Amino acid sequence: MKSRAKFDLILGDLVVNMLDNENRQLMLKRIRDMLTKDGLAILRSWIKPKEKLLDFETVLKFVRKNYPNVNFYASTAGYVYPAYINSSEFADIDKLKSDLEDLRKKKNITSAEYKYWGDRLKYEIKGVAVPELKDLNKQFSKYFKIKKMRQGVDIFSDIYKIHFLKK
Questions:
Q1: What is the DSSP letter of 51?
Q2: From CA 101, how far away is CA 56, in angstroms rounded?
Q3: For residues 160 and 48, what is the distance between their CA atoms, to the nearest angstrom?
Q4: Pick from 139, 149, 161: nearest CA to 28
Q5: pTM, rounded to two decimals
Q6: 158 within 8 A of 45, measured Cβ to Cβ
Q7: Nearby residues of 62 by Cβ (< 8 Å), 6 or more positions away
Q8: 7-46+133-166 in CATH: which number?
Q9: How does strand 35-46 pair with strand 7-13?
Q10: Where are the domain boundaries for CATH 3.40.50.150 in the chain?
Q11: How confident is the model over 41-70, as pLDDT tens digits?
Q12: In the chain, which ranges are continuous DSSP H helix?
């Protein structure tokens, strides 16, 4: 998005994760250019979790054990996408879909859980990029001063970061 308008506040929810490195750099530059002198950008992003889970089945076991009362998609998405990152920076959606189908066939997930994830994957074309926190901070620091960084609680402390960025 290119705009001559200036804004005091720009919010972004997971937009960083929809772009490859090149386009992420362009987006960050444009956000910086659209902020007023004292403007603030607040961006929430998925980051690679500390837990190195390698596939959907491993993620499923991990979240069922550690977060049994958290919404299925919310508890799995932040771990599943990083498990499927390929050489393109993005999650391999075809492999993810195939593994999801295998879990359904084995009855490791309910039909409702399968449908919920499947409905979201219908719109995935390239997948989701999930950078390491240090790499994301380096990208942000190229265009902004990182004023604060916050995280969620419970399961979300490991997979989401919220950056408060100033010019």
A1: S
A2: 10
A3: 9
A4: 139
A5: 0.86
A6: no
A7: 51, 53, 79
A8: 3.40.50.150
A9: parallel
A10: 7-46+133-166
A11: 999 998 988 888 889 999 999 999 988 898
A12: 21-34, 56-66, 72-83, 93-105, 111-121, 133-143
